[in-house]
């Protein structure tokens, strides 16, 4: 198992109170596996990814749980120890490639420095690895494009460069935080094909963070649905999408136009997700749920089937009927 997260709690300790951004999250990612982490904005997806990499800034901190990378707990590691892992063993692809790329440095300078930050190699060897990585993600004439600056690339090409930088050390785990959200559908499909091929060819594990079920459906082996800092349903992609159990998962699917007949109106989830400082007791989704009863005022326990399909809901039979 490449990564195993157990009961992860990441809280932000503010003057107004404790914001539980991630509250008891558990999941696993095997070698070469792609896990789709889906949910609305504010559900805790990105903070989960930042927690794995040790990138949560004060006043936030990991308040509990374990993050096991090849069996070794990353919680409590110093920043120096985490820097040896970031980029080398675990890499991240951000939604906006300009968060990765420095606008005043050439692509060559940035990629060569990224290689030499972890490996003692010559500049020529580092440059050769940069050319190879750009070629893997489909950048034409990679040797020539190294001399370019980020503003000389289109949005899709900049994202490919960011992916190439994440691949320089052949990391065992990549966390991709909605990297195709701002791209058009054609470029998005090209990048998804690149990601799938690289994961398959190099055995890299991937956590794909997204709010788009359509993207995750064609990419991930397994799906974990997050709401209000918790995973409310998880399982094999086909199982979760074909037989969803949690009302929130059903609500997300009803909001996808592709699931409807032509002319049929969308059925959005009513209301708004509760803020981290004002989450209700019991099931956090109960105030928006079509299946909620008085029982939902208490915290539901996790249930599971033999095939690994797990959920937190008192009324799966109502959800199945829906």
From TrEMBL:
Keywords: ATP-binding, Cell membrane, Membrane, Nucleotide-binding, Transport. NCBIfam families: oligo_HPY. CDD domains: ABC_NikE_OppD_transporters. Its main location: membrane. This is Peptide/nickel transport system ATP-binding protein. Residues 3-253 form the ABC transporter domain. It is a peripheral membrane protein. The keyword Membrane applies. One of its GO terms (cellular component) is plasma membrane. GO terms for molecular function: ATP binding; ATP hydrolysis activity. Belongs to the ABC transporter superfamily. It is found in: Cell inner membrane. The lineage of its organism: Bacteria, Pseudomonadati, Pseudomonadota, Alphaproteobacteria, Hyphomicrobiales. The keyword Nucleus does not apply. Gene3D superfamilies: P-loop containing nucleotide triphosphate hydrolases (3.40.50.300). GO terms for biological process: peptide transport; transmembrane transport. Pfam families: ABC_tran (PF00005), oligo_HPY (PF08352).
């Amino acid at each position: 198992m490449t990564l195993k997260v157990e009961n992860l709690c990441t809280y932000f300790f503010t003057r107004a109170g404790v914001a539980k951004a991630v509250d008891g999250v558990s999941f696993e990612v095997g070698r070469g596996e792609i896990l789709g982490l889906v949910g609305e904005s504010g559900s805790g997806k990105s903070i989960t990814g930042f927690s794995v990499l040790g990138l949560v800034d004060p006043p936030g901190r990991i308040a509990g749980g374990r993050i096991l990378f090849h069996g070794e707990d990353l919680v409590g590691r110093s920043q120096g120890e985490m820097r040896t892992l970031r980029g080398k063993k675990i890499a991240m692809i951000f939604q906006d490639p300009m968060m990765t790329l420095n606008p005043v440095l050439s692509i060559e300078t940035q990629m060569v420095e990224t290689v030499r930050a972890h490996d003692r190699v010559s500049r020529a060897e580092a440059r050769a690895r940069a050319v190879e990585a750009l070629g893997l993600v489909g950048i034409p004439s990679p040797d020539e494009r190294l001399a370019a600056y980020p503003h000389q690339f289109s949005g899709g090409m900049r994202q490919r460069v960011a992916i190439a930088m994440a691949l320089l050390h052949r990391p065992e785990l990549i966390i991709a935080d909605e990297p195709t959200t701002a791209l058009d559908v054609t470029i998005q499909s090209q990048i998804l094909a690149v990601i799938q091929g690289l994961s398959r060819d190099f055995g890299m594990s991937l956590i794909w963070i997204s709010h788009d079920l359509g993207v995750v459906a064609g990419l991930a082996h397994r799906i974990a649905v997050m709401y209000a800092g918790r995973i409310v349903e998880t399982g094999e992609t086909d199982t979760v999408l074909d037989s969803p159990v949690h009302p929130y998962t059903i609500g997300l699917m009803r909001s996808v136009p592709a699931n409807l007949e032509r002319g049929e109106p969308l059925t959005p989830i009513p209301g708004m997700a509760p803020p981290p400082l004002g989450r209700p007791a019991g099931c956090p989704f109960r105030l928006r749920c079509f299946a909620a009863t008085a029982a939902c005022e208490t915290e539901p326990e996790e249930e599971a089937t033999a095939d690994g399909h797990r959920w937190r809901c008192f009324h799966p039979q109502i959800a199945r009927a829906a």
